[in-house]
Amino acid sequence: MKTKKSTPFFTETVKRFTIWNVLVFLLIIILLNIFLVTTIKYTLQQSIDIRLKHEMENVIASLDFSDSTITIIDYSEFNEPDLLEITETPYFLQIYTFDGEVLITSKNLKYYKYIPVETEGDFSSFTFKDIEIDNDQLRVGYFSLMNDSGERMAVLQLATFEARFTAIFNNLVTFNLYSFPVLIIIIIFASIFLARKSIAPINKIIATAKRISAGNLNTRIEYKAKTDDELGRLRDTLNHLFDRIELNINQLSQFTDHASHQMMTPLTAVKTELEYILKKDRSENEYKEALIKLLIQTDQMIKIVRTLLMISKQDNHNEQSQSVFNFSNLIQKIIDTEFAKDNIQSSIEKE
Hints:
Layout: H1 12-61, E1 63-64, E2 71-72, H2 81-84, E3 92-96, E4 102-105, E5 127-133, E6 136-146, E7 152-161, H3 163-211, H4 230-279, H5 285-312, H6 327-338
Antiparallel strand pairs: 1-2, 3-4, 3-7, 5-6, 6-7
Helix pairs in contact: 1-3, 4-5
């Protein structure tokens, strides 16, 4: 018993579609992650800089720069907890001259390590940089303090830990690293599903095309799709092809059917007549050899006709052609030509 061969689950087409789909999605995800990580890192750093700048502006507002001296006129800013103690987000303040002499420091610096001063630089605008002190990442802001004459008097340095913001960034990177394999698996299965879903109409078309045979020529692909769609064009193209094949096979079947019936009567008559002639005792060897050859050819033609009849029976329900080729006249002419010199006459009965 012939079993129906099912379509493999993971065909080469599905494999190619899945590979390309996964590669494209991975490329998009990698580029998107790079963009997000860069943007988030920049945003977090900008957030630190904004906080530092705000605190530095408050400190500057608490100072007086008259008489070429720096005087604290508002101690409330210097008495904030973030400048007194090492809190979760402390601020380490130093005001120093361009020679490196420290003039003012926040009280919490005595509980922390020494933060080096930076004397090289203009610092006419707020400047920020990252430094590392014993594995502690700090973000440091600098600004030049000037008197009323526009002369640079000192540098305001304010530093804070980046640990809180670094932790947020590291958590984001860790989450991406752990979720990446899971995302790949999801993309692979989704790609396989989409690939099989996409080629399902093609499999239906193939199944319909396989059902079309010589005895089932009127079957057509009935997949619903717009004519300007790729699958719609494929459906119409195959249906037009099947129409032409059906027409050609029907014409061939009609021809072989009528040709076979038309040929059988004269050929059988020729064979009977030749057998009768061969039964007589003839002296002319050439004449006998010619008759034998003609008999062999006649047998061969009958075999061909029988084969054509078998082919025509496969589609005997089709409408028969009205055009008939008269083989009787053809056979009559052949016999008259071959045996004219021997004065042999034959007559084939016509239907």
